[in-house]
Amino acid sequence: MTARPVGASDEGTGISRRAVLLGGLAGLGAMALSACGGESDSAGSSDAAESAGTVTTGADGVQEVTLLVRDDYIFLPDAFEVGTGRVRLTLTSEAESLTHNIRFTPGAGPATIEEEIPILGPGGSETIEFAVDQPGDYQYECSFHVALGQIGTMTVRES
Ligand SMILES: [Cu+2]
């Protein structure tokens, strides 16, 4: 009667050591899993930030680039480069409160680009597509916050 509780408590110790060991291994496994999950989860925001401004080519051959806006007055990035041809530009908002937009500043580039995203609320994402044939620097801006310096430059090179 007394031996049993003692034995149980000894076993309990053994079990709890094993449990600690197993827990440790499970913990490692969980860490490995969460590291993987974490990467693909944070891929949303950190990859978005990392790949912002990176020009890739879509399956249809159109150049693609994504710019980010947040709760401040900058475009991420504020400069990128494309070749002449078609461009598909996505503006993604990671803002929680600010509303932005994007347009190519009228009269500021070698040619007019009329496509624009007139308004993009917090968390939104919109895409425009346009063609650029004239190399040079095209300024883009958020017309709401241009006075606060929310501008950028798309450089078009001959391709
Ligand atoms: Cu803005």
Automatic annotation (TrEMBL):
One of its GO terms (molecular function) is copper ion binding. It comes from Geodermatophilus aquaeductus. The keyword Metal-binding applies. The keyword Metal-binding applies. Transmembrane segments: none annotated. InterPro entries: BlueCu_1 (IPR000923), Cupredoxin (IPR008972), TAT_signal (IPR006311). This is Plastocyanin. Gene3D superfamilies: Cupredoxins - blue copper proteins. Residues 73-156 form the Blue (type 1) copper domain. It comes from the Bacteria. Pfam families: Copper-bind (PF00127). Keywords: Copper, Metal-binding.
